[in-house]
Task: structure prediction
Amino acid sequence: MSPTALQDETARVLQRLIAFNTVNPPGNERACLEWLELYLSEAGFDCELLGAEPERQNLIARLRGTGTGPTLGLLSHVDTVLATPEDWQRDPWSGEIDEDGFLWGRGAIDMKSQTAAEVVAAVSLAREGWRPDGELLVLVVADEEVGGRLGAMWLCENHPEKVRCDYLLNEGGGGVVPYAGRRLYGVCCAEKGTFRFSVTTHGQAGHASLPRMGDNALLKLAPLVSAFASRTPDYDVPPEAAAFLAALGEEPEDPRGAIERIAQVDRRLAVLLEPMLGVTFAPTQIHASDKINVIPARAELRVDCRVPPGLGKEDAIRRVEEVLGAEGYELSFIEEVVGNRSPAESPLMDAIREWTGEHEPGAEVVPTMLPAFTDSRTFRDAFPECVAYGFFPQSHMTLFDTAPLVHGRDERIAVRDLGVATDCYRHLARRLLGG
Result:
């Protein structure tokens, strides 16, 4: 197929996927996945739907080869976050393409676009008669937006033999970053861990009409909230972030100075880059008295804490105490998940560099780390030998264009970037699996 025909087919597939309302909860991904199952099976893939609940299925599509080469997995999810139509300029489930060549809809970036590009790349290769020296595995899962319990986690726990792969491509990277006349494509090699916690203060209840008769726990909590706003912990720079700083010409040993200098060139990049450099705290919920006329004896603040891969609870505590001190509150962890990584050098990274050099001579490929997490974390935990990267290349919309649209209103993608990504996945499959 010509590049134009591939781009057009990817756009049509994405439009069809967006038309399925798969907002999670409740998800209801089955109908969407049944459509993909038919599309892939007609091209020669062996397909099956597996899931813990009838309407929350996951699609496994396999193109077998005759050799003994590796297995490349193309992973994506089709559940989305909520969209409120009255807040949008266009219907979130229309898949409409506007006069400027942007395709609109919930999931246009996160991440039905990558589903469409991966699937069309795989189907187009199969239609041409290409067969891998190994296996090409297309995995389209449910439930990622609320943690993946019914999706990637369920598959890896219940059917590991069906989803095991040597290389995995997923979301989390690929948006081009323009910086000081350069263009950098980030490959997400690592993801932060999640160590959410609560900070609780205690006092004595009393009638609110007599403020000094009680001991107001909320007033004790207030300085701690302010501390999160005014103080930042020192950095724990992971190797992926260090490599990104070095690629920008900065010294990884001076992360604070690096962020200040980067902000002078482009503040948007500094805002996106700083969370990669260490532990972050985002206070998001607070609760005290249940009644307005009762002085609270207990006040609780909940904090979303993200920790660089490989670091754990003790590292989080150390940084909390750096900001709050060690006394005057009770600290309890709500969630403890250690982040993980894949090696930044691999045959998959070599293939990405090769494609980038052919697609856009002069552009650079750099490893990055995602401040959040994706289903890649689940695959790395289940299959330590698997090299899992986030890479969905986009050339015409930059990372600064797309980042505000993820989970936001008016989500849309440049149709030309659908062609870019489809071409990339075809190249990577051929490069890693032969043919």
